[in-house]
Amino acid sequence: KQAEKAVHQKKEQSKTKCRKARRRHINLVAEFNHRQRKNIWLETHIWHAKRFHMVKKWGYCLGNNPTEKSYRACYRAMTKQCLLQDLSYYCCLELKGKENELLKQLARICSIDTGLTFQDASCLSGRFEGSLNLYRADRYPEDMLGPVTFIWKPRDGSENRQLWIWVHPALKQDILKELKAIFQCSEPEEICISEPITASVQEEKQVEVVTSLGNKRKKEDKEGEKAVPVKKIIGDGTRDPFQSYSWISRTTGIAISDRTMEILRYRLIGPLSHSILTETLKAASVQTV
């Protein structure tokens, strides 16, 4: 009996430790979520991790330099074809409110002496992206915060506008603090507390179920396909997931939202960039009710 028991235990261990069981999708997703709790992964992390030396900066895991000599290939793509770069680690701050109030307060943190401002006609229409340097309110030319890029959402006929400001993760907290100060946004509008906890608990439960299934693994997989955990983690490398990510002002009516890792950003360089975009993106059919 003891010998039969030992043989049975060896068989059970080999089944649970086989490569197919370790690389099952539900286990991989739970492992991805567990490994990026301290340093967030970009959507292209797996591709970069196989080809680049990864570094941990600004709360993210980023590709620093390639593992093989691909400089000639990148230069050839930039000059003759198309090269794509993942800039999703840049932080996106969204501003919503009346256009006059937005321009009035934003004029305090930039200057026309440096060049382009938020009031430029070409950028205000939403057709082009602009870039400028931000300063602390009414402190130009001293106390510079850093460079940013911005883009306005095209007008829809109402006085309310929407503005996206892209900042480097190292500058995000200082710029966000200054924006909340000039717009008097102190009350949190949305707080993300329960979702990360429930997601991690569900992942742990699903992993326990998978490891304890044994011979009935295939039958349970068909029934539990809908319960596959999501790869995305709420929060980013520059913000704690338990902090609020949206603020509103009762006096000015301006709302500031942190859209980091919700709006991805890619840069295409090369003469074929426009043709690749036109072939990749298809216009959606607008349905009016």
From TrEMBL:
Q: Name one GO cellular component term.
A: nucleolar ribonuclease P complex
Q: Where are the transmembrane segments?
A: none
| InterPro entries hit by this protein | Pop1, Pop1_N
Q: Which GO terms describe its biological process?
A: tRNA 5'-leader removal
Residues forming the Pop1 N-terminal domain are 4-97
Q: Which PANTHER family match?
A: RIBONUCLEASES P/MRP PROTEIN SUBUNIT POP1 (PTHR22731), RIBONUCLEASES P_MRP PROTEIN SUBUNIT POP1 (PTHR22731:SF3)
Q: What is this protein called?
A: POP1 protein
Species of provenance:
Setophaga kirtlandii (Kirtland's warbler)
**Native organism taxonomy:** Eukaryota, Metazoa, Chordata, Craniata, Vertebrata
Q: Which gene encodes it?
A: Pop1
